């Protein structure tokens, strides 16, 4: 049974037309400043205010959180409606819904495993954009080895005292809450058993953030410091010492292996139609690059790969088509997708020749430097949520059953 069985195709078609019409009449005009391509570039109050207003508008119009429980601010509808709304928003290149860590990771986690109190407290603010969420997993000097984190959370009666630091904290300087992984037991026999998971307030005394500038020149990440920070013991999610399991479930949402995200556009995607436009517009020796046989051959290969990614998204919804290697498609989604877009964007720069050295702000840059910015932004996606190398290890170990050594 498909998730939208029983829904008339005409109803879905009418809904799609309604979304497209709403987008046509409600997409904001160019604000006159550079908007983020991803949620990892919100670096000013001006940009934040614009995106917060846009997300609230999408939600209040019924096109965000459509499949989330109605009693917590969602629409309570079958997920197919949110998928259609997302498709139309992506097609129209509307601004991003910026609160992605809440919409895509913290929110689904709370819906699936949280208490009624946690759902009542946190979910509606995530959807409206009022409550921004950040993630406190990665730490300086520990790379992708999440099990080795050293930020400590010590129980003191009805509070936990947090000390340590986190890095690459997207929107940490604007966030109201953090999904925080910290060590509560330094003597645990297995290091993973000593970790606990918190829904931590970012306005607690002793928390400071320091912005980090990206390759693009944009800001969006911070390093976050905890100096004897006291948070209520009620911020603990689940049981003490069960943080690793909860963190791994969170990463399933982040990596696309589990559904549940509220929807909206998280990243201004580039698709093959965009790359084909470059090949038609850019000329070499007086002829469009599209006429070059080698270029055409490379473009066809990218088209085939893009179609394979699209078909894989549909295949994962049909258990019978994934029986040989259960979860293989879902677990490989992040690796395949982020690496495809990295190579595709890099090829767009290759097609530009010497013009690829021009950037945003240069009047001669192809398409205003969009592709240069998009290519450099892509490194955030191949690193965040586990690097491509980590993703390859996950597939090798958990899908193919290869030994760790």
Structure characterization notes:
Helix content is 42%, strand content 14%. It is built from 11 helices and 10 strands. A hairpin with a 5-residue loop joins strand 6 and strand 7. Helix 4 (100-113) packs across helix 6 (243-254) and helix 7 packs parallel to helix 9. The chain has 405 residues and is α+β, with helices and mostly antiparallel strands. The strands form 3 sheets. Strands 1-4-5-8 form a 4-stranded mixed beta sheet. The protein folds into 3 domains: 9-131, Acyl-CoA dehydrogenase/oxidase, N-terminal domain (Butyryl-Coa Dehydrogenase, subunit A, domain 1); 134-254, Butyryl-CoA Dehydrogenase, subunit A, domain 2 (Beta Barrel), CATH 2.40.110.10; 272-399, Butyryl-CoA Dehydrogenase, subunit A, domain 3, CATH 1.20.140.10. The chain has helices spanning 9-26, 45-60, 79-92, 100-113, 116-128, 243-254, 272-281, 293-315, 328-351, 370-383, 388-399; strands at 133-136, 152-156, 159-166, 177-183, 195-201, 207-213, 219-232, 236-237, 283-284, 287-288.
Which key features would you list for this structure?
Butyryl-CoA Dehydrogenase, subunit A, domain 3, 10 strands, Butyryl-CoA Dehydrogenase, subunit A, domain 2, 3 domains, Butyryl-Coa Dehydrogenase, subunit A, domain 1, alpha+beta, 405 residues, four-stranded antiparallel β-sheet
Summary?
With about 400 residues, this protein is α+β, with helices and mostly antiparallel strands. About 40% of the residues lie in helices and about 15% in strands.
């Amino acid at each position: 049974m498909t998730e939208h069985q029983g829904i008339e195709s005409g109803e879905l078609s009418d809904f799609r037309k309604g979304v497209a019409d709403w987008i046509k009449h409600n997409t904001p005009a160019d604000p006159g400043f550079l908007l983020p391509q991803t949620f990892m570039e919100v670096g000013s109050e001006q940009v934040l205010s614009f995106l917060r207003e846009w997300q609230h508008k999408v939600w209040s119009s019924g096109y965000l959180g459509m499949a989330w429980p109605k009693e917590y601010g969602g629409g309570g509808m079958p997920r197919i409606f949110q998928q259609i709304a997302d498709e139309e928003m992506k097609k129209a290149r509307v601004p991003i819904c910026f609160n992605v860590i809440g919409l895509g990771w913290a929110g689904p986690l709370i819906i699936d495993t949280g208490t009624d109190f946690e759902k009542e407290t946190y979910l509606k603010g995530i959807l409206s954009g009022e409550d921004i969420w950040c993630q406190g997993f990665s730490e300086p000097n520990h790379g992708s080895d999440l099990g080795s984190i050293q930020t400590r959370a010590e129980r003191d009666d009805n509070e936990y005292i947090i000390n340590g630091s986190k890095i690459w904290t997207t929107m940490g300087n604007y966030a109201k809450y953090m999904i925080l992984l910290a060590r509560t037991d330094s003597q645990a026999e297995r290091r993973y058993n000593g970790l606990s998971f918190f829904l931590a307030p970012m306005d607690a005394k002793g928390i400071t953030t320091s912005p980090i500038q990206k390759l693009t020149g944009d800001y969006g990440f911070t390093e976050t410091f905890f100096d004897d920070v006291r948070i209520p013991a009620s911020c603990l999610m689940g049981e003490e010492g069960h943080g690793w399991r909860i963190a791994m479930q969170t990463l399933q949402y982040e990596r696309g292996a589990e559904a549940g995200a509220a929807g909206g556009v998280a990243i201004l995607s580039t698709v093959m139609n965009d790359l084909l436009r470059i090949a038609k517009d850019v000329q070499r020796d007086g002829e469009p690059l599209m006429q070059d046989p080698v270029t055409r051959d490379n473009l066809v290969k990218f088209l085939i790969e893009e179609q394979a990614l699209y078909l894989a998204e549909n295949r994962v919804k049909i258990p019978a088509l994934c029986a040989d290697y259960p979860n293989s498609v879902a677990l490989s989604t992040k690796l395949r997708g982020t690496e495809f877009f990295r190579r595709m964007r890099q090829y767009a720069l290759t097609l530009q020749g010497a013009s690829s050295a021009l950037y945003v702000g240069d009047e001669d840059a192809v398409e205003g430097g969009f592709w240069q910015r998009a290519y450099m932004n892509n490194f955030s996606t191949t690193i965040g949520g586990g690097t491509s190398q980590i993703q390859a290890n996950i597939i090798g170990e958990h899908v193919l059953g290869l030994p760790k050594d």
